[in-house]
């Protein structure tokens, strides 16, 4: 990540799921599954999709590399991420390497944490990000970057909920 672009913006989505932390972590540790929302055209991606490629570590070990590439509105997009924390079944973090070629967010650190909760697990998906470095992308980032970040963390949390549906027994979670 570029040292000159502090990650000044943050978003997180939280969900409680009826699944033990070990199973939830194993499900989310498949980076292609976790980021599958990026491979499908949607309004938030302006109808574009990104291709996801991983190295031999499959994004499942510290130092493992994940690459995404695609086009939106004729503009080539791409990024490289590296896994910086991998602590099953509790936490995984990855971050961009260099300046990503994206339209509404710049460098970022993203991840999830899982903690046991009565009847299941509490999942928090988070992103810390910077605006793109310059030009039209910086303006777009200032206008819609927060919506994109919220959509991304929310999609990951909702996809996990869809994979593990069912009621939670016990008290509702509290925000920290």
Automatic annotation (TrEMBL):
<dbReference type="InterPro" id="IPR023393">
    <property type="entry name" value="START-like_dom_sf"/>
</dbReference>
<protein>
    <submittedName>
        <fullName>Polyketide cyclase</fullName>
    </submittedName>
</protein>
<dbReference type="InterPro" id="IPR019587">
    <property type="entry name" value="Polyketide_cyclase/dehydratase"/>
</dbReference>
<dbReference type="Pfam" id="PF10604">
    <property type="entry name" value="Polyketide_cyc2"/>
</dbReference>
């Amino acid at each position: 990540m570029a040292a000159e672009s502090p990650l000044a913006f943050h978003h997180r989505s939280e969900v409680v799921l009826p699944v033990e932390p070990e199973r939830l972590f194993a499900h989310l540790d498949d980076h292609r599954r976790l980021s599958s929302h990026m491979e499908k055209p949607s309004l938030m991606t302006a109808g574009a999709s990104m291709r996801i490629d991983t190295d031999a570590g499959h994004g499942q070990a510290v130092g493992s590399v994940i690459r995404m590439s695609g086009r939106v509105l004729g503009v080539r997009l791409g990024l490289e991420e590296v896994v910086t924390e991998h602590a099953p079944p509790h936490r995984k973090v990855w971050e961009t390497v260099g300046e990503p070629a994206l339209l509404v967010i710049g460098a970022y650190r993203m991840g999830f944490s899982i903690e046991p909760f009565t009847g299941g697990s509490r999942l928090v998906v988070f992103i810390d990000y910077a605006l793109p470095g310059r030009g039209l992308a910086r303006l777009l980032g200032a206008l819609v970057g927060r919506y994109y970040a919220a959509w991304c963390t929310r999609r990951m949390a909702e996809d996990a909920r869809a994979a593990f549906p069912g009621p939670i027994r016990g008290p509702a979670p509290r925000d920290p």
